[in-house]
Design goal:
The chain is of the alpha/beta class. The chain has two domains: 90 residues; 131 residues, Glutaredoxin, CATH 3.40.30. Helix content is 54%, strand content 15%. It is built from six helices and seven strands, in the order ααβββαβαβαββα. The strands form two sheets. A five-stranded mixed beta sheet has the order 5-4-3-6-7. Strands 1-2 form a two-stranded antiparallel sheet. β3, α3 and β4 form a beta-alpha-beta unit. α1 packs antiparallel against α2.
Amino acid sequence: MNATTYNTITATLAIGVLVALVVMIVSFIAMIFRWKTSKRRGHVIRLLVAIATIPCLIGIQQAILWMVFLPALGRQQMAAINAARADNLTKTSVVQVGDPAPQFSVKTADGDEFSMSDAAGDVVLINFFAPWCGPCRMELPHIENIWAARKNDRHFRLLVIGREETTESVREYRVKNGFSFPIAADPDRAVYSLFAHESIPRTLVVSRGGLVVYSKAGFYEADLDELNAVLDAQSADLP
């Protein structure tokens, strides 16, 4: 239901309420003046019907507002937000869903070497963040939950990368927040620039075949269901 339809229905119901009010007032006055006549009964009935009609019409208007119009408006707004996010993702991304994942290698804060070539045949989750980024701080606990649930899967790899951060700063941030996922620094955007021009947090999933199968910029909790569904689907046929 769009706003025009809702406004038309509301205006019609408002006219109905106004008519009912007029009938109620006229019937009440006529009832008083004709109380001792045989026409009193008709005025009383019209008065009672008008009194009952007003809350019914108001109830119908409220039901349409809360059960039809506002949910439809919410869906429209969410569709607009998702369209804007998708457009922003396309404009700010170097690689799109379906593209081969860029090849890179970095040393993690634990001193281990992570490379996409070594991760060939594995499902890889990559997250770019910065400690000053509010949405990043909201997202990382969920990334930690994903790591805790999947870290024993030998065909699952995860790497959180601090954009424009040092190894020391990302290590300190992980310790401070009690995270355990693998983390690495990207001080000069060397890795980040392979994937995007701007916008963090940014989360990508790379399939066992080396293709980007999930890509999101920004953080919305609603994305987590899709992210986990993608990871489940990619891991479904793993031995």
